[in-house]
Amino acid sequence: MDKKLGRLLLIGIPYFWLFLLFLVPFGIVLKISLSDVAVAIPPYTPTFDLESGWEGLKALLVELDFENYIWLTEDDLYWTSYLSSLRIAFVSTVLTLLIGYPLAYSMAKAPSEWRPTLLMLIILPFWTSFLIRVYAWIGILKTEGLLNQLLMFVGIIDDPLQILNTDTAVYIGIVYSYLPFMVLPLYSSLEKMDGSLLEAAQDLGCTAISAFWKVTLPLSMPGIIAGSFLVFIPAIGEFVIPDLLGGSDTKMIGKTLWAEFFSNRDWPVASAVAVLLLLLLIVPIVLFQKQQERAQEAEQ
C-alpha cells in the first residue's frame, strides 16, 4: 500500500504542477481570448463572479465568441508577424548551427583536461543578466559603436554602417544569446562518439572530409536536432532582442503581443495572439519529443 501511494505521489506531483502552472494559466488566457475588449478593470468582458454559481458560468459561456481569432486572420499585421518570426527564427537557427558545430567539434576533440574550461567559457555568458548582454550589443553595433570604429580604423569602410535597428542586428543578438543552447547538445553528441569509427572509415579509403560526412555528421544528428529545437522554439517568441536591436520595420510576434497588451490594452486580441503562438510552438515541441523517443529506442 505504501509503495502504491509513493508511486502515485511520484507520478501525481509533476502532473499537479503541470496542471497548476500550465493548464490553469492557459485556460485563463484562452477564456480572455474569447472575450471582448472593454474600458474596465480588467479590460475585457464578460467576467466570472463566483457568487453567481452555475448560472453565472452558463451566462459567461454564452457570451464567449471567436471574433478575436477572426480578426487575426483579417489584419495583415498579425500573420505577417507570425511569418516574420518564423523566418527570423529559422535563419537564426541555421546561423547558430553553422557557428556552433565547429565550436562543439573543437571542444570534443580538445584534450580532456581542457574540456571543463572550454565548457565553462561557453556557459560563462549566463552569469551575466540577459538584458545587460543585449544592451551591450547596442554599444557595439550603433553608428559610433565599437564595430564601426574598428572597421573604419582598419580601413575596410569609410563611413559607418547602419547595423543597429535592422534585422541584421536581431540575427546577431539571437545567435549570440542562444549559441550555448546549440553548442552544448552538439558537444554532448560529439564527445560520446567512438573515435575508432573514424579510423575504420579512413582504413576503408575515406578521406577526412568524406569520413566526416559519412560518420561524424550522422552520429551527431541527435545533437543537431536537439540544439536546433532549443534555439528555434524560444527565438520565435523573442521580444527583448527585436525590441532593443531591431527597428520599426522588424516584425516579430513577441513585439506585437507586447504592444497589444501594454500599448493598446486589448487583452482579448493579445490573448488570442498568445494562444496561436502556443499552438505554433507545440508543433516543433511534439516533433522534438518524437525525435527524443526514437533516439532512446535506438540506444536500447
From TrEMBL:
It holds the Pfam family BPD_transp_1. The keyword tRNA processing does not apply. Keywords: Cell membrane, Membrane, Transmembrane, Transmembrane helix, Transport. GO terms for biological process: transmembrane transport. The chain crosses the membrane at residues 7-28, 86-105, 117-138, 169-190, 211-236, 267-288. Residues 82-288 form the ABC transmembrane type-1 domain. GO terms for cellular component: plasma membrane. It is a multi-pass membrane protein. It is found in: Cell membrane. Belongs to the binding-protein-dependent transport system permease family. CysTW subfamily. This is Putrescine/spermidine ABC transporter permease. It comes from Kiloniella spongiae.
